[in-house]
Amino acid sequence: MARLERKSLSNRVVDGLRAGDRDVIYWDRDLRGFGVRVYPNGVKTYLVQGRGPNGSRRITVGRHGTISADEARSQGTSLLARIKAGEEPGTGEGSGPTVADLAERYMREHVEVRCRASTIAGYRLVIGKHVLPPLGKVPLSALGREHVAELHYRLRKTPVAANEAVGALSRMLNRAEAWGLVPAGSNPCRFVTRYRTRRPERFLTEEEFGRLGRALDDMEAEGWLPAHAAAAIRLLMLTGCRSGEVVGLRWEDVALERNEVRLRESKTGPRVVPLSPAAARVLANVPRLAGNPWVIAGREPGDRLTHLAYYWYPVRERAGLDDVRLHDLRHSFASRALALGEDLTMIGRLLGHKKIQTTARYAHLARDSVKEAAALVSDSIAADIMP
Question: Where are the domains of the chain?
Answer without folding.
Answer: 3-84, 99-191, 206-327
